[in-house]
Design a protein that fits this description.
By secondary structure, the protein is mainly alpha-helical. It has helices spanning about 15-35, 55-75, 80-100, 115-130, 145-150, 150-165; strands spanning about 50, 55.
Length: about 180
């Protein structure tokens, strides 16, 4: 069984994944391009200020790489965008923790400073939230397409129950106020 087999396709939640990936991808693309425009040293551990964050050529390159991944996910849309958002978000959060440990060391190859760590955590959580929106929850509502895909028998039973006439008279039950 593949992971994507149980996920619904072409649902309105796909627009949330698509817009989230696109917005975050454009922000990262701008940051990466500004870093390249400044002609930053590729492996400098001190970095230069770009848009309020410390950056070097390697960080600019990685920012553009992740931006392209998010924008490709936004173009494809649907479950692909959701999965890309979750993976990229997790990578940003993990990067925040790793680079927090590398601050002020000679192994700080991405020239991170504390604002970069905070940005990494925030961007990671935002991107992952866009990816998980409506897909991951402790109690999804029964009309959610992910719940319906994961519980097809119960979803079919609920659909039959809602479509049966009241009392066998061929009429729908009256609406209550």
């Amino acid at each position: 069984m593949k992971l994507l087999d149980e996920l619904p396709v072409d649902h309105r939640l796909g627009q949330v994944y698509r817009y989230g990936a696109g917005l975050c991808g454009v922000a990262l693309l701008v940051f990466g391009c500004l870093g390249f425009a400044d002609g930053l040293a590729f492996f400098s551990t001190h970095g230069e200020q770009v848009a309020g964050l410390s950056s070097n050529g390697l960080l600019s390159f990685l920012s553009i790489l992740f931006a392209v991944a998010l924008i490709v996910g936004a173009v494809i849309g649907g479950n692909t965008a959701s999965t890309i958002n979750i993976v990229v978000g997790a990578a940003f959060v993990l990067s925040g923790f790793v680079n927090l440990g590398l601050l002020d060391s000679s192994a700080n190859f991405l020239a991170f400073r504390m604002p970069n760590v905070m940005f990494s955590f925030i961007m990671g959580l935002v991107v992952a939230t866009f990816g998980m929106y409506g897909r991951v929850s402790w109690k999804l509502p029964h009309d959610n397409p992910y719940w319906r895909a994961r519980h097809p028998e119960r979803a079919d039973a609920e659909q039959r129950r809602l479509s049966l006439p009241a009392g066998g008279t061929g009429q729908r039950p009256p609406l209550t106020q």
